[in-house]
Amino acid sequence: MYDMGTRERALSLVAQGRSLNSLSKETGVSRAAIRSWQIRIEPLDRNRARPCPRCCDTPEGPSDPAAYAYLLGLYLGDGCISHLRRGVYFLRIACADAWPGLIDACAEAMRILRPANKVFRVQRQGCQYVTCYSKHWPCLFPQHGPGKKHERTIALEPWQQTVVEAHPWEFVRRLIHSDGCRITNWTTRLVAGERKRYEYPRYFFTNKSTDIVRLFTEALDSVGVDWKQANSRNISVARKASVALMDAHVGPKY
User: Fold this and answer.
1) How many structural domains compose the chain?
2) Residues in CB range of 225: below 8 A, 6 or more apart
3) Looking at the domain assignment, is residue 138 inside a domain?
4) Which residues of the chain form beta strands (DSSP E)?
5) Phi-psi bin for 224: left (phi > 0), alpha (psi -120 to 50), beta?
6) S-S: 167 plus which of 34, 69, 105, 180, CB 3.0-4.6 Å?
7) In whole angstroms, how large is the CA radius of gyration of the chain?
8) Is residue 184 packed enough to be buried (19+ CB in 10 Å), middle (13-18) or exposed (0-12)?
């Protein structure tokens, strides 16, 4: 966390027209952090009646870090944050109708993190948008910004990295549930001179953002899962021991 004085100084220099690159070199603050301060709601308001768990200058993270790691994976996979009015934002996660259990898990994670805010489910063709309104979504998800995720840099803040390192399986599970799948592949092999069909399970993860793919594979590395990169946006987990680990902690969609 950066103290309030650092934030005030950085934002005052931004207001003078300084570039984020020059500010980052001068202050030692990452460009992502300065950018997140620019888009946060009332970033320097010290007298907020209900402080956001990421707005206040304390080392504490979200109230439930495991639920946060899960919701972070949701947001990076199928979520977006939009401005409504008067400083209110809404987080919207697209969940396919085919997986009702994932819709329930998404809604529950939102309720845990924002217990004072109502969670809505909006039906659309083939999917539901799980939505919750709050002034604090940009604070909790500083990756929010203009444009598509795969067309801009996606990097975790230090406090987010700490949460993911403490709860990597929650993060991996939601990324798989969002942009991945568990399938059964097959091949053939010679057995006693006879060619027989052989089936085996594997996991796939696909995302257009190379940054999100990197976050996913780093989390896999941290839990000892072997993976291969099929191309720039496709990750495969096929080794028997690694699939068993994924089955124990992730499992198929439901």
Assistant:
1) 1
2) 172, 237, 242, 245, 246
3) no
4) 79-85, 88-96, 119-124, 127-134, 180-191, 194-206, 228-231, 234-237
5) left
6) 69
7) 21
8) exposed
CB 114 within 8 A of CB 146: no
SS3 string, 26-62, reads: HHCCCHHHHHHHHHCCCCCCCCCCCCCCCCCCCCCCC
CA 206, 212, 215, 220: dihedral to nearest 10 degrees? -10
Residue 204 resides in a domain: yes
Question: How many residues in total does the chain contain?
Answer: 254
Q: What is the CATH number of the domain that holds 244?
A: 3.10.28.10
pLDDT digits (tens, 9 = 90+) for 143-174: 988 888 988 899 999 889 999 999 999 999 99
73 lies in a domain? no
Q: Residue 189: which domain range?
A: 172-249
- The residues, any chain, with a CB within 8 Å of residue 201's CB and separated by 6 or more, are 182, 183, 184, 185, 243, 247
The residues pairing with 138 across neighbouring beta strands, listed in sequence order, are none
Question: Is 216 a member of any domain?
Answer: yes
| Phi, psi angle pair for 70, to nearest 5° | -65, -45
* pTM for the structure as a whole: 0.73
**C-alpha pair distances (Å), 203 with each of 23, 129, 167, 206:** 42, 25, 20, 10
Bridge-partner residues for 231, per DSSP?
Answer: 234
pLDDT tens readout for residues 71-117: 999 999 999 998 877 778 889 999 999 999 999 999 999 999 888 88
